[in-house]
């Protein structure tokens, strides 16, 4: 039986110096293609005939290469200091990449691998990226965007090139941004796969992502510079997470002087260095590629006294030259509220029933790290749920209401009871969670900044349905984590709250809350209630009794609860 091979189209728009292009093409011939059928789509955008000749020779070497002339005759200025990209060049390249997306889709490729022509890949890069199972993932590379500056990766977390975590509306101090920035660089020096907000230049894209509508078209209401930003924003809007892999860092030939690094890089990554096998070579290459950034971390910490300006951040990745006058040093962001200022009160509210033997203890122990008060409805429990709440929340004001008979058959009525009980405590911020929901660990460290915001009354989060201890479910029926849902709300006495009266799936908060100023948070919420087979069976039977025809939910999703082999995705904190 013939083994099925993964069909990959490697695409690269090429406007390159011959010496660098030669090394790029040589590295492509060394890729490990076990179980891979690799075709090439190269767009010749060169003005240098020697570079065009190299592409023709590569296409005539027996490989499956679609070589297309760009039809342009643009200048692209590069030197040892910087690369100068004008807007027309950016969107020209975006058009080239869109052509490659369309070809991959039309010819039914499993993946499109877009790569810049100044990168040198390790032989196992492509196989490894395919093996991650991610829909969009880049291999990392590190670059000094200006001579004698910090080596930085081509990936970022937010906006144009913010390489630190930040929440919507958050205003961390310059010192806190500096700490987060250095932590981000240190993390990416460790072999792993990490979710990021932006990426480019060495990116594997699955057929599923292509079918969803991913493209490099300009997002008209976004002013960010660079086609990769618009690609990444569109991916996020489509619910496709972005990842970077750091196991096989590429070598970036950003300057002609970087050519001297190629020979040693190839020796190490091919395992041909004296006394080294492939595994040792790959490990040492990671160190060679990443360590310089590590060595400069303290230097950066000592020198970085202010935030980057927007123009400086743009220059570091896009190579766009700074204006002649950048206006001097950046104004530091407003510092967080002083330590002496009282943090707004956070009230946890939950509806629980027979949770004592499930996740309630670990959930409440985590909540104890940041809540100030709790309002809990025990909806007819017949076990020790109420006693467990009192035990774990000892020392925290607890308002425990015990319904002698469950009211869940009319969820709207139950949720109103919960809301009224919370409002009676004069809350400031309300965190509404179920007894099987818990935030990822970093929520405890970052919730203060949410509570102190003056510009937002409602925060929304992604909810991940766990199907076992460390994996969540993702398929056509289970995509809650692709959207944001409200869980944290500031109580406004002057706002009239309206309720949905559906007896099931009415929502845990009033239905008109999105009239309030609201924001999305990148903090993630883990839903553990599906994570054991016996719990899934119980929920399935309950839905079949309360909503057998799917009038208030999705009947096909109810039925999918009992699927024996669902698609599961590993969770990473």
Compact description:
The protein has helices at 18-29, 49-59, 87-106, 125-131, 174-188, 207-211, 227-237, 262-270, 278-303, 310-318, 360-367, 385-392, 411-423, 443-451, 533-546, 555-560, and strands at residues 6-14, 36-44, 65-69, 77-78, 83-84, 111-115, 119-120, 136-143, 152-153, 193-196, 202-206, 242-252, 346-352, 373-379, 398-403, 429-432, 437-439, 458-465, 471-473, 485-490, 518-527, 568-570. The protein has 573 residues and is of the alpha/beta class. Mean pLDDT is 84; it is low at 272-297 and 299-340.
Task: Note down, in words, how this protein is organized.
By secondary structure, the protein is α/β, with parallel strands linked by helices. The chain folds into two domains: 6-318, Alpha-Beta Complex (Spore Coat Polysaccharide Biosynthesis Protein SpsA, Chain A), CATH 3.90.550; 346-570, Spore Coat Polysaccharide Biosynthesis Protein SpsA, Chain A (Alpha-Beta Complex). Helices cover 32% and strands 21% of the residues. It contains 16 helices and 22 strands. It has helices spanning 18-29, 49-59, 87-106, 125-131, 174-188, 207-211, 227-237, 262-270, 278-303, 310-318, 360-367, 385-392, 411-423, 443-451, 533-546, 555-560; strands at residues 6-14, 36-44, 65-69, 77-78, 83-84, 111-115, 119-120, 136-143, 152-153, 193-196, 202-206, 242-252, 346-352, 373-379, 398-403, 429-432, 437-439, 458-465, 471-473, 485-490, 518-527, 568-570. The strands form four sheets. Strands 1, 2, 3, 6, 7, 8, 9, 10, 11 and 12 form a ten-stranded mixed beta sheet that branches. A hairpin with an 8-residue loop joins strand 8 and strand 9 (152-153). Helix 1 runs parallel beside helix 2, helix 8 (262-270) packs across helix 9 and helix 11 (360-367) packs parallel to helix 12.
